[in-house]
Design a protein that fits this description.
Blueprint: H1 2-14, H2 18-38, H3 42-59, E1 62-69, H4 78-82, E2 92-96, H5 110-123, E3 130-135, H6 142-157, E4 162-167, E5 175-178, E6 182-186, E7 215-222
Parallel strand pairs: 2-3, 3-4
Antiparallel strand pairs: 1-7, 2-5, 5-6, 6-7
Length: 228
């Protein structure tokens, strides 16, 4: 599987499809690392280490892509935005957003949006085991916020996923990180969707059909290969 992934990465690189090749390079590295850990043959370990070093060189550096979501644009549901970065090797996710705290708000339902994001992770193809959430307390609705987050935590545990929740009074940045090296920063965090016209209007259930607020999405990749 690792060899096929690397072969695909080289083909994409040659075709100047750098974003897709970077995903394949990183997945190939992770798969080869698993092989290194499993093998006891010293000569094979050395060859695998050399190959990993070559791949790390090819995929080294930083990547940046920016997506501009226009006012009232549709087609930007979570699956569409994140799917190409959620490869099978993703097992850990970090969400930092100060506004994952309210259920009822004029323009957004941040806790529901976080739940929808978690549902996307549950569906795969990634094999997420741990989600880390860093947010801030909801002053007047703290008890409800804690109750909802605990319910989400218990529900995720039914799928073998641990939700770790931490709070900060000084957090202001919004970013989502995956342990395959991808980082996504959305100007409005997960709450970039507009309030639906009604509970039975198109776009209420399907976020791909929900109009968006204008925002910018910045996507980065930083080499994170572990030492071997």
């Amino acid at each position: 599987a690792g060899a096929e992934t690397v072969k695909r990465a080289v083909q994409l690189d040659t075709a100047l499809r750098f974003q897709e090749s970077l995903v394949c390079y990183q997945e190939g590295i992770d798969l080869l690392l698993q092989v290194v850990k499993a093998t006891t043959d010293t000569a094979k370990k050395h060859r695998y280490r050399q190959k990993i070093s070559e791949l790390t060189f090819l995929s080294d550096g930083k990547y940046h892509k920016q997506i501009r979501i226009e006012e009232n644009a549709t087609g930007f549901g979570y699956e569409k935005l994140f799917h190409e970065y959620l490869t099978e090797v993703v097992s850990e996710v970090w969400v930092e957003d100060p506004y994952i705290r309210q259920v009822h708000q004029a323009s957004r339902n941040s806790l529901y949006n976080f739940l929808r994001f978690c549902e996307m992770l549950v569906k795969g193809p990634c094999k997420v085991k741990t989600i880390h959430l860093l947010t801030s307390y909801d002053g007047s609705g703290r008890s409800q916020q804690m109750s909802v987050l605990e319910e989400i935590k218990q529900s995720l545990s039914n799928y073998g996923i641990t939700l770790n929740i931490d709070f900060s009074s000084s957090i202001h940045d919004r970013e989502i990180r995956f342990n395959n090296g991808w980082m996504i920063k959305i100007g409005r965090g997960l709450d970039y969707f507009k309030k639906p016209q009604g509970h039975f209007s198109i776009g209420y259930c399907d976020f791909d059909l929900r109009p968006c607020h204008e925002t910018t999405v910045d996507i980065f990749h930083t080499k994170h290969t572990k030492k071997i």
